[in-house]
Amino acid sequence: MDPEKLYVSETFANPGPIIKRIQPRAQGRAYRINKRTSHITIVVKER
């Protein structure tokens, strides 16, 4: 594969796992925080 002949054929992003965190609040309550992640895919092809 010659790096000079490569080009980006397609790109897409899919949802990944969600990391769940808890944020303490007043009077003993807690809010859930969802930290979202994603999977980014880039496909390259040769001309």
Automatic annotation (TrEMBL):
Q: What is this protein called?
A: 50S ribosomal protein L22
Query: One Pfam family name from the record?
Result: Ribosomal_L22
The entry assigns this protein to a family as follows:
Belongs to the universal ribosomal protein uL22 family.
The record ties this protein, via Gene3D superfamilies, to:
Ribosomal protein L22/L17
Q: Which GO biological-process labels does this protein carry?
A: translation
The root-end lineage is: unclassified sequences, metagenomes, ecological metagenomes
Is the keyword Signal in the record? no
> Which GO MF term does the entry hold, naming one?
structural constituent of ribosome
Instruction: Name its species.
Output: bioreactor metagenome
Q: Which SUPFAM superfamilies match?
A: Ribosomal protein L22
InterPro entries attached here?
Ribosomal_uL22 (IPR001063), Ribosomal_uL22_bac/org-type (IPR047867), Ribosomal_uL22_CS (IPR018260), Ribosomal_uL22_sf (IPR036394)
Q: Which GO terms describe its cellular component?
A: cytosolic large ribosomal subunit
Q: Which UniProt keywords apply?
A: Ribonucleoprotein, Ribosomal protein
